[in-house]
Amino acid sequence: MSPARSPRWLVTGAGGMLARDLLPRLEAAGIPALGADRRKLDIVDATAVREVFAAYRPAVVVNCAAFTAVDDAEEREEEALAVNGRGPRWLADQCAASGAVLLQISTDYVFDGRADRPYREDAVTGPRGAYGRTKLAGEQAVLETCPEQGYVVRTGWLYGAAGHNFVATMIRAQRQRETLDVVDDQRGQPTWTADLAGQLTALGIAALAGDAPPGIYHGTSAGHTTWYEFAREIFGLLGADPDRIRPISSDRFQSRTPRPAFSVLGHDRWAKAGLAPIRNWRPALAEAFPAVLAAASAG
Known about the structure:
Helix content is about 40%, strand content about 15%. It contains 9 helices and 12 strands.
């Protein structure tokens, strides 16, 4: 009888905000993991992907690598598609061949943002920009190439201590500006990367145990808010006057890409995996805030 394979995990995009919370979470859970940034593994390179799989033989792959510059994707869609669409296909090819589980991180931008109730996991997609189109291509590649081991986890409005994000931006802006204009007609779910990291860890473990059906899951916090209301909450945690923030409409915000007006995702499918959805965004922000504040102050 051959020895059982060690349940090693491979985390791509290891230099990014989510992966930098996920890798410590895996270590704390006693899960051996290889964090591969672009220098170690460029997922656009199919040969490099094959070589890493042959050398490391992961049981679970979490693909955090992505082209995330939403506006730049409009002018560099082919480059974005290579990372967000073809890269996941190369990973999915190797997972299908080896039997490894693939957790593909996706986005709320695959929807058109015109809904008035939370998007279900099986809701019709309709991206309005290049970024959403390329991420949807990645979803389709994973679900088509390894339908038995492929998991798509859509998220949005991410913040954390390890990267550029809205919370850190508001912390810095509060010190530099007397008033701030923040859009109040876009609604979504602020999600702490540490909470999402815990959810991905639980999903990967459940998938290996055969307890989580493959397919699409929504990895965002419960509840929802607008950017304006989110900013007021951040100012409150800083002890600053929230009335220094002024609500504006999106048509006053210069952007090459239309932002979804409604990015609220439903979480029904977690029950099929025996897992609870991520908690409400407000207590998560309160818990995350000291670390994000420290990082923003040091940056």
